Amino acid sequence: MLIRYKKTLEKIAMGLLSFMPNEKDLKKLQQTMKQYESEDDWQLFLWKEEDIIGLIGVHFFDESIIEIQHVSVNPSHRQQGIGKAMVKALQELYQDKELRPNVDTAAFIEKCDVKKDII
């Protein structure tokens, strides 16, 4: 289930976000978290089953386009379709908008064969 990020979940979100190659540096990671917390057009969602095991972050460009900025799944839960499920849940949540990957998420979106459903 996709849930919206709350400040109380910051440590979990930072842990998941740190699995992204461009978020390894602590200062960069803190800047990214601040951006999600302070800018209305940046939204972070967490994937919860029994525990929170995934994260997807998006940037709302305008009324019709959402760009997927981050997709991360706890390594012990990978290869189970969770990343794809998060993207599909996001599609259902924002049916009237076009989802696009960014440079960092494009390879994942293509790999899990979701891109054709998005664009």
UniProtKB/TrEMBL annotation:
Protein name: GNAT family N-acetyltransferase
PANTHER family: PEPTIDYL-LYSINE N-ACETYLTRANSFERASE YJAB (PTHR43800:SF1)
Keywords: Acyltransferase, Plasmid, Transferase
InterPro entries per the UniProt record, alphabetical: Acyl_CoA_acyltransferase (IPR016181), GNAT_dom (IPR000182)
One Pfam short name: Acetyltransf_1
Domain of life assignment: Bacteria
Residues annotated as domain N-acetyltransferase: 1-119
Keyword Mitochondrion in record: no
